[in-house]
Amino acid sequence: MNRIRALLRPDGDQNLARIQRRKRIVSALTTRVHLIKWSLFAVGYLWMLALPSQRLGRGTYIDENALQPGQVNTYWNWGDVANADRYLEQLERIRDANETILARAHILATEFMKLGIPASTQSYRFSSSSGIVEGTNAYAVLSSPRASGTEAMVISASWISRLGEGDGSLNLRGVATVLALARFLKTYSLWAKDIVFIISDGYMDGMQAWLSSYHGLPQSNLEAEELELPSGVIWTALNIDYPGHSFSHLGIFHEGINGRLPNQDLLNSFSYISRWTGGVPVLMYDHIETPRFEIPAWIPQSFHDEIRNYDYRSKNVVRHIGYQARGRGSGVHGLFHQFRIDAFTLFGVPATGPHGFYAIGRIMESTLRTTNNLLERLHASIFFYILTAPDRFLKIGSFLPSAILISVGMMFAGLKVWSDAAWIRVAVAEIEEKEKTGNGARTQWAQRRRPVIPVLGIMLSTHILGFLMFAVMRTPWFINNPTTSSTILFTICTAIPLTALFTPNQTQNPQTTAPTSVLLKALNLCFASTVISITTVVNFSLAMVLTIFLAVPLCVSAPSPILPLRIGQYGVYIVLALGWLCATEEVRSALWDWQVLGVWFAPFVCVVYTPLVLQAAIVCLLPV
Amino acid sequence: MHVDDLTLPALVGGRVAVALATDLYQQLKYNHQLASPLTSYLNLQEGVFLFKNGVDPYFGGVFRHSPLFLALFTTLIPTSRTICSLLWTLSDAVGAWALVQIWRARQRAPQTSRDGLVAAAYLLNPYLFLPTFALSTCTFENTLTLLSVMFAAQGSVSPALLSAALLLQLSLSSILLTAPLILLLANSTGPVSQLASPHAFASNGRKVLPLVAEYVAYVAILSLASTLVSGSWAWIPQTWGANITLPDLTPNVGVWWYFFTEMFDHFRPFFLMVFSVHLLIYVAPVCIKFQYDPLYAAFVLQGVLGTFKAYPTMADIGLFLSMFAVFPELFTYLRHPIVTIFLHLHAALLMPLFHHLWLSQGTANANFFYATTLVFACANGAALTDCVWAGMRIAIGQPQDGYSVVQE
User: Fold this and answer.
1) Is residue A224 within a helix (H) or strand (E), and if so which, with residue range?
2) Membrane spanning segments where (chain B) (predicted)?
3) Is the pLDDT of residue B364 over 90?
């Protein structure tokens, strides 16, 4: 007993032991900060690489019991398929006759009215710096026979298909499916929610105009007619995209604008129904599972499956990140999410067979019956996920830490630079020098000041520069002369930070005041880390891309004593900060997305990303 | 005229211009971080409307403002938005002026070069000006807090006690501040910084009793006036009582609301008692430890209030953070200021974000927002413990090589 007590409470000064223990722990950590930082980075990046692995993540499941997918008999039959074919013929006639947009919308609305469903049209006109977009939507509201119409479901098809990201192929079979479904669904009285049919014009613009008017959100650059037919709160929306002659698989497109995702239950119900009711295999996007490369023979057979799986899933994950990071919706459904509507696009992957109207009709009918079952909104928090395959997904806990670890590493790095800035080794004064008996010049640590105000001033001015740059990019001049304007912007933004070169070398004594470049680096790292860790919850893909572009470059920024090397470093950072200006087409579409759809990616890059890298560039320029 | 004399008017002018030129109220009025059910302008309007139409506003559980607000807004001040924006901004201006006066009293100087900085710390603090734009009545609580501290620092007994009693009418939890205020009035060393030379309370304890009596008298008179205004005693359980019984669980930046949404009903009274007593626990130790510098004790207790009170808003902790400007002697002794700053930055960015994800976008849930209020509480706790440490550490003097300070 006494021995245990002695172990717990050793003799001697308790406080001394405590101080020594604390010092040991602190020095053990501070001397290893670089090791900790780089190992956090390594773990984070490896984790990101492991995201598509089949060992991470789990199978999908239906969380909401009310959905009951695939539990009903479907009644869609060959007669309805014939109706769909008649509608398709009519649509092809409209296409071939080259009808005006307005006439087309009126014909579509008339078709709905012929069925006895109230229908109307809505003309709209978007003005953006790249020009004017006009069109006319047609829509119809089938009132719920069973309830008061306070809730609604949407079935929509855009006139232009997402094939080639809206490059102009028509979605005629999708529109025909919507019309035939309207005819079919009207004959059943089991609908507990209004069903709204929308044939939106254009690719994204038509639906944006319709949704803005429906939710009464005025948009300064949009002139749209008011909607004549009211309905309830929209809970779910299914968007049909069927551009080919037939389809072999149905693809799920689910990313919304600004990185929003629909509730996963909706996608899982659809996958389940498609597989077991419709008999159609489901894909992520239009990624048909074909091997992309030969697996070398020396790899044991037992690993082949895993490699194939990884290859297939990594394709899905990369595509997902491409959509989500840029905040670009992967289709018309993406516009619904901002109004708290769960929506996705069913994409009929063009093929010569075997599926067509019969399969898609049955799947739509059954999926509508499932969403019709909902008594409350889909709410369980499965809004944060990465679908690696139609039937496998990553929970938030299995992907979020990867970016967070890197952001923590950056925070450590920043704090280390910050605390190091406070100390400097100085030679001990003369008198003490004589007393010493040891060898060589003795030095000791001295504390110095860390003035923050000039550093914050530099940081703020880079963000203001980014804001001004974005203001210029919004003008029609920028869009109309992409090459000249990009060059001018690039030159100006490169030239302004160069003034840092001419800051006087020794304004303050480095013995008493920490150099600005060190403090700027510290705060830049800490601030970038904050931005990344906060972005992870809103838009994980964007945070991941930020960790790739920011983490290592910001950590290694340091001024070099040799002037040409300094300029070289600066050039590298400038390319990292502003290189995207060369991708004219990408910049143009990001700006269009911001002006028409309200996608935050373009302002985020200009006001947050570019200034952060510019700060690192300035670190390289400032005097040591 | 010195340049610093112009800083306060210039800042106030800027604030007035922003208040009149923009319509931030429309965007901020529903914001749970800026106004609690006890301070929301929407609830005040509702109460005034009911009162004007002859309905008792304290019947129904929506209106929880003091009857003094009813009296003010039904007789003197029309509820026009422009006038209100001006009134709220002017209240902030008075607060900033009071803070500058406190600073001057502590320095025992009629004017210093840092006056402008102190005013800016109050008027440019986003935790303070955003609630003002949202017309949250916590702005008035802050102004009254600063006024009572200012009068106490200047040694004007009756104005200090009267504004403390008025403050109590608006917010029951501010009773925590009365102890340091009375000590400050009874203290013979005044508001001048004594942190570097701790000593026993330098005054006659007998001075305290008449001060307490005067304070109680003011509180009694004001309570009576409130009762006369509202016509019954019903205001007491609805306004003061709400701080203790927590009837409204609208989310806010504090740590109470979520805890009590999860609470089984039969444990509720017990934990309400625990949470309320927890607030009171701090008064005695802080006042005893900092008996030589009651102004500092008031500062620390304001931090406790902002972190742990029942219906806090950003403004409560904002006042604590702005008051740092009055104690520059702390800065070199703070142990982890940069960590505190980045915790605050994280909390300040995450709170509106998770609030939006939960209540507008619908993808997150209450746990997300609560988690960020915990981050916020950690940030406040870090600031609080650090300034308690620094306040006591000053007395030991500059750190020396080969020595380190440890807390037993």
Assistant:
1) strand A222-224
2) 117-140, 160-186, 215-236, 270-288, 295-311, 341-358, 370-390
3) no
What letter would DSSP give residue A429? P
* Mean pLDDT within B6-18: 89
pLDDT higher than 90, residue A342: yes
∠A47-A52-A58 over CA atoms, to 5°? 100
Reduced to 3 states (helix: H, G, I; strand: E, B; else coil), residue A555 is helix
Residue A507 pLDDT > 70: no
Alpha-carbon distances of B282 from A248, A537, B144, B205, B390, rounded to whole Å: 71, 37, 22, 21, 17
Distance CA A417, CA A296 (A): 46
Q: DSSP string covering A353-415, please?
A: -SB-HHHHHHHHHHHHHHHHT-SS---SSTTSEEEEETTEEEEHHHHHHHHHHHHHHHHHHHH
Closest-CA residue in chain A for B332? A449
User: The tokens of B372 are what?
Assistant: 């960020």
* DSSP single-letter state for residue B396: G
Round to whole Å and give the CA distance between A529 and A410. 6
When pLDDT is averaged across residues A280-304 and rounded to a whole number, the result is 88
Chain B residues with CB inside 8 Å of A338's CB? 361
Say how far apart CA A355 and CA A116 lie, in whole Å.
Answer: 30
B28's enclosing H/E stretch is helix B24-28
Task: Please check the confidence at residue B1 and state whether its pLDDT lies above 50.
Answer: no
Quote the CA–CA distance of A81 and A87 in Å, as a whole number: 10
User: B244 touching A, CB under 8 A?
Assistant: no
Q: What are the Cα distances from residue A243, in Å, to A132, A177, A331, A449, B365?
A: 26, 11, 13, 67, 38
**pLDDT number for residue B111:** 86
Asked whether the ipTM of the predicted complex exceeds the cut of 0.90, the reply is: no
Mean pLDDT of A588-612: 94
Domain ranges of chain A: 29-52+400-422+449-621, 100-390
pLDDT of residue A9: 67
Strand order in the sheet with A119-128: A222-224, A119-128, A131-142, A194-200, A151-158, A233-241, A342-351, A246-253, A282-284
Q: State phi, psi for A140 to the nearest 5 degrees.
A: -145, 150
- Cis peptide leading into residue A354 (ω within 30°): yes
Say whether residue B26 is in contact with chain A using an 8 A CB cutoff.
no
For domain A100-390, which architecture applies? 3-Layer(aba) Sandwich (3.40)
Position A434: which residue type? K
* Partners of residue A260 in chain B, C-beta under 8 Å: 361, 363
| Alpha-carbon gap: A102 to the closest alpha carbon of chain B (Å) | 35
**Termini Cα distance of chain B:** 51
Number of CB pairs < 8 Å for A and B?
A: 45
Please state the pTM of the whole predicted model: 0.90
DSSP string, B231-251: SSTTHHHHHHHHHHH------
Angle, alpha carbons B128-B131-B137 (nearest 5°): 110
The pairing of beta strand A131-142 with beta strand A233-241: unpaired
Count, residues in chain A: 624
